[in-house]
Amino acid sequence: MSPTSHTTPLPTRTPTRTPTRRPTARVLAASALTIGMLAVAGCGSSDSSSEAAPSTTSTATPAEKGGPLDLSGVCPSTIVMQQDWQPEAEHGAMYNLVGDGYTVDTDKKSVTGPLVVNGTDTGVKIEVRPGGPNTNFQPVPALMYLDPDILIGAVNTDAAIVADADQPTVAVASQMTYSPQILMWDPASHPGAKTIKEAAAGGDPVVTSGDVLPNLLLSQGIITQAQIDTSYEGTPQRFVSDPKILQQGFATAEPYIYKNEISQWGKDVSYQLLSEVGYTIYPEPLAVRKADVTDKADCLKKLVPIMQQSQIDYLSSPAHANAVIVDLVTKYDTGWTYSAGVANFSVEQQKKLGIVVNDPASGVFGQFDPDRMSAIVKDFTPFLVSSGSMTQDAASKIDPSALYTNEFIDPSIKMP
After folding, report:
1. pTM beyond cutoff 0.85
2. Looking at the 3D structure of the chain, how many domains does it have?
3. Which residue, of 277, 292, 327, is where some domain finishes?
4. Do 225 and 98 share a domain, yes or no?
5. What is the pLDDT of residues 28-64, one digit of tens each?
6. DSSP 3-state percent helix, strand, coil across the chain (nearest 5)
7. How far is Cα 153 from Cα 293, in angstroms, rounded to an integer?
8. Long-range contacts at 192-199 (CB < 8 A, ≥ 24 apart)
9. Domain boundary among 224, 246, 277
10. pLDDT of residue 19
11. Same domain for 234 and 362?
């Protein structure tokens, strides 16, 4: 979803100085219910030696030699993609490309399989690695510079700003157009409230795991200094016991989880997307190391359009990727829980709320808006400096145009 990283190895989705994502209410929910899993028979196998079962061999059709879906020869034989958190539907475009016959390394926590696009085998493999506790909460840019095998990483715009001085990354395709992060509240405790401003008008605490979000709201006069509470630990206990608070969450997860998987709550929550009140970063766009824009250009020319289309295809037909995601969560067995219900809800929310849409400026899916990128740098560097995430000197040297490129985007790819 939309975690924010640091140049130091801080938790990517645990309380830090910046907006984060952690194992939220679903961790508690797992102990209170039996999660309905999607059927994944025949999708993959799992053991520490990563040996595929014979019955799961890919039957995809080989790509036309030299055609747009043939990645052999121009891309690494295994394209390694690094996510920032545990497997979930917000990462669907990556998992959508993991073909049948995949293997799961339960020690290293990774999945590897043929990279398949709508039944066509691209001639290379894809390996997707989860982040968060699986990588000791190291920021994705740091992981990319520690391990040159990683080609693609999911790097939030504000994380890219923080890392730019020492670990510069360049975003090559947007996946989610807007952040799914929300502030949520109990509708009974805030009757009639439709917005964060209305819900916060009574002065109740705004509970987050970092200070960028509340300071953003403070700068707009939506909340007061006295309302800021950065003690959120990612569990539902506080919200359940003190329903007057406003609490951070994700539109793609918490509304479903609180209603369906937390028996102590079991009802609707109200919320507003933070992207509607100034949290304008690009969440988890696909990024490469700065040098790879040139060094891997031949690969990226073919791979980026595939990633553009994969996100669109995933939202249209999420069953395969969601089955892979739920299967991996079960096999990784890290304490993170994720049900098929949450995955399906996330897909619907991404579409319903306009979290994944064509770039409004160009109409092209996955393309970056130069004006928006400049505004993000202008608006967020002061918060990142004041939070201690970066120095003023580093902030003054940020070039918004260096944080992204539309060079590899296929302008013909658009959401219907």
Report:
1. yes
2. 2
3. 277
4. no
5. 333 332 223 333 333 454 454 444 433 334 689 999 9
6. 35, 15, 50
7. 13
8. 193/270, 194/270, 194/272, 195/272, 196/222, 196/223, 196/246, 196/272, 196/274, 196/277, 197/222, 197/277, 199/246, 199/270, 199/272
9. 277
10. 38
11. no
Residue 72 lies in a domain: yes
Which amino acid is it at 170? V
Beta-sheet pairing, 78-82 with 120-129: parallel
| Per-residue confidence (pLDDT) for residue 58, from 0 to 100 | 61
**Which 8-state DSSP code applies to residue 12?**
S
**Contact (Cβ atoms closer than 8 angstroms) between residue 249 and residue 196:** no
Q: How far apart are CA 180 and CA 248, in angstroms?
A: 11
Amino acid at site 136? N
- Contact (Cβ atoms closer than 8 angstroms) between residue 18 and residue 212: yes
Look-up: residue for tokens 């369906």?
260
Query: pLDDT per residue over 131-176, tens digit each?
Result: 999 999 999 999 999 999 999 999 999 999 999 999 999 999 999 9
Measured distance CA(98)–CA(13) in Å, rounded: 25
Pull the structure tokens for residue 299. 């690969």
Query: Are 150 and 82 in contact, with CB atoms under 8 Å apart?
Result: yes
Instruction: Compute CA 404 distance to the chain's CA centroid, rounded to the nearest angstrom.
Output: 17
Place of tokens 């304008």: 280
The predicted pLDDT at position 239 comes to 98
CB 381 within 8 A of CB 161: yes
> Is 119 a domain residue?
yes
Compute the distance between CA of residue 175 and CA of residue 315 in angstroms, rounded to an integer: 11
Q: How far apart are CA 363 and CA 73, in angstroms?
A: 32
For residues 254 and 293, state if they share a domain.
no
User: Each residue of 182-216: pLDDT tens digit?
Assistant: 999 999 999 999 999 999 999 999 999 988 899 99
The span from the CA of 130 to the CA of 108, in Å, is 10
Domain range holding 157?
41-177+282-339+351-403
Q: Other C-beta atoms within 10 Å of 77: how many?
A: 10
In a shared domain, residues 312 and 250? no
Tokens describing residue 163: 């890392």
158 vs 66: CA distance, rounded Å? 37
Query: Mind listing the pLDDT tens digit for each residue in 326-361?
Result: 999 999 999 999 999 999 999 999 999 999 999 999
- Count how many residues are written for the chain: 416
Left (φ > 0), alpha (ψ -120 to 50) or beta: where does 88 sit? beta
Residue 27 has pLDDT above 50, yes or no: no
In this structure, the number of other CB atoms found within 10 A of the CB of residue 88 comes to 26
